[in-house]
Amino acid sequence: MSAPLRILISGQHGQVSQALQQSLKDLGELIVLGRDRLDLSQPASIREVVRSLKPDLIVNAAAHTAVDQAENEPELAFAINATAPGVFAEEAAALGIPFIHYSTDYVFDGSKNGPWNEADKPNPLGVYGSSKLAGEQAIEAVGGQYLILRTSWVYSLTGRNFLLTMQRLLQERDKLTIVADQIGAPTWSGTIAQSTRELIERWREGAPGAWGVYHLTASGETSWFGFAQAIGQELIKAGKPCAALEPIPSSAYPTPATRPLNSRLDCSRLQQQWGVSQPHWHAAMLECLAQQR
User: Fold this and answer.
1) Which residues have CB under 8 Å from 22's CB, separation 6+?
2) pTM of this prediction?
3) Confidence bin at 207 (pLDDT 50/70/90)
């Protein structure tokens, strides 16, 4: 039986953090720090907290994820998404412990025809993606035992996300128009947390794969329109009202930040190196919704 771990999780109320708190709770002591105790915009604060707590593992589940808002506050986005991860990586390396960090499909420009793999060259389209890429680069510059896990289209039963928004709007309106030319994999926060647990277990067993950058999304692919259709089908099965859906191109729904049209990520390297695979997005969605009932 492995000794209990002392795990520092940055971020308290976010979708991934809340899922991690459930998935990792029996691995040891979880030190979950929200903004009131850990200000990611202040590097000195991060160093002080890590050095005082001396954890066995750091998981950074906090980020500036307001994609459109980031266009208007790049300094804050870079402080939280770029500088802070680099500081965490430095402190983790100094303690000789692993550091797990989550990144995004937005580091790519969406122009590739097939799924993106870890060797593809990033080319973010906006401030959010640029700040997350800078965070990756800051961690890589430090080195050590780190995992950068790129994910996409995260949803859960808490916070603000596409699943909950669609459930509400589909029942409130008669008709909805949804973007149909952006392709990716909706990824439940529970899937991310479970995969993170498996990675931690591989490390504790003494047989980890190579440290570095990996893609971690649900398998399969769909569009936002397809995701909305799947959500609507479950509402209908439950006897609830559901709006009619109409597909539209991204050009018909302009936003401050440009979204990549192709957000598909090839996750085969994570399976090959660490033996960790993810469920199909639709199966994971049904598992998520089962917890809502």
Assistant:
1) 190, 193
2) 0.96
3) confident
